[in-house]
Amino acid sequence: MLGTVLGDRYKIVAVLGAGGFGQTYLAEDTHQPDGLSCVVKQFKPTTQDAKTLEIARRLFNKEVEMQKILGQHEQIPKFLDFFEENQEFYLVQEFIDGEPLSHEFARRRLNEAETIDFLRDVLVVLEFVHRHRVIHRDIKPGNLIRRHQDGKIVLIDFGAVKEIHTQVVGDTGQTSFTVGIGTHGYTPTEQLAGKPRFCSDLYALGMTAIHGLTGLPPSRLPEDPDTAEYLWKNHIKIGTGLAFILDRMIRFHFSQRYQSATEVLQALQRLSELPTDITEIPPSLLLPDSLRDQTNVDLLDTNLPKRLKSGARAVAVATAIVTGLVLGVRQLGWLEPLELGVFDRLVQLRAQPAPDPRLLIVEITEEDLQTLNRPTPSDRDVATVMATLAKHQPRVVGVSLYRELPQEPGRAELLQQFKSPNTIAILNLGSANSTQIPPPPGVPPERVGFNDIAIDPDGTVRRNLMFASLNSETYHSFSLRLALQYLSAQGIAPKPSPDNPQLLQIRDTLFPPLQPTSGAYQRADTAGYQILMDYRSAEAVAAQVSFTDVLRGEIDPALVRDKIVLIGTTAPSSKDLFNTPYTAGQQDDYKMPGVVVHAQW
Description:
- By secondary structure, the protein is α+β, with helices and mostly antiparallel strands.
- It has helices spanning 50-70, 101-107, 112-131, 160-171, 189-192, 198-214, 240-249, 261-272, 304-332, 336-349, 366-372, 379-391, 411-417, 478-488, 547-551, 557-560, 594-600, and strands at 5-6, 10-19, 22-29, 37-43, 79-85, 88-94, 98-100, 144-147, 153-155, 359-364, 396-399, 423-427, 448-450, 463-470, 473-476, 494-496, 504-506, 509-511, 529-532, 543-546, 564-569, 577-579, 591-593.
């Protein structure tokens, strides 16, 4: 294979790795004057039948779009090219000149300060990755490269090719979609079961940091036979603060870990603000904000370093004891699974009504994508569907689709459809420290709603985020915008409650928001204006028609006239799927597409 030129451009210089799905090569770009080095990843489908190739092609096209976005981060290899040759698929990415941490860890151990710097470096990258709803799923020393140029850590090998291999094989009937991807020892149990979460990446990062500190890979660390937790602290002497943070990152059960990269970064920041002579650190200082006691002593005021320094060990120990007692069973979350489990069971036991006659979902299914032979519908197809629906006089249309992609045919027609006064578009807020994904240009703010969904620490959607504030601006949710526009035609508008102007009221119905002390929600982020979800159906919340049927004009006008119409994807390959109370306890997991979740609201 050495010396072979792929895609009439990339000359193979060396083999970097191999697996059941294909190989990874170091190559020279012969179209560049200096023969720029790059990495070429090959995917070789297990069979060459037309169906397998069609599925692989669609999944790869979708992956290309995501890799282009992720490659914009300076600590992720840039996406360079993608091509198909001899019924095999290739991704081309930037080559990172540096040393994998697997080599570095074989030579030396990290000290405590280096470990904290390493964690911060990678967590910032994970914030960016997770913001785009991507889970890396294979964080380990070999996939983290210390770049020679600036010493920064670069995150490589997102396992996209492995995931596509799994999905293609699953679609062709040879294995299951729920195949765990990862590396033994760095991969938590929920990911091995095929159900990765954002905190699965935090687990892998924590295990990598412990490997760097102790010099021992996970396979050489003992486990507690009763809890399955790793016993690693007797192999190294480090501060109690960093030990607490690492322990919480690698907890066996995902619900007991930090749930986001931001939470870990906040804990590291608080740790850095403590005086260096403090030997006992109150654990509550390093917990996420939703777990810390806000009703007792404010442990994060500006005088904390002085108070701790003057009181030294006695104050710190006393604070830890008192805070632990105040938190009690409720704050530690011991009852949370029971409370949420009861809520889930009550939702499951509710009678399943007929589909809501006020709603219609135009769903983009896997069959639609296969018919269109695209990973997502084109701008022109979406514009055609919107124009077809408009002829049948819907009261409001919500388009849960928009991509910041290069200009393509039909973009002008699509933007023209968004000018309709009864059309609602989406934006994605991300987080306070992240860049928003904006709505289509030209759509006024009163016709835009955010599609961010509040997810509980156990990965389930039970809350409806109605309003959110970011950078001093208040935004309406996508579903709220749809509901208010629908009601406005009947002369119904929201108003402040006469008894409490801070509460929203629609007619006689009051919508009190969840508070940090609301039952099980001691541990969830209750920022913004949130209420509990009012789930009405596991599947048939509304009538559903396929995107391609509407595209062909094959739709009953009565399904559209004077209705709320939502357009969105229900295809499993879209990854826009969420755990709901209906998922718990089911033999076959039921994940609800995002557009259906919006319809429940």
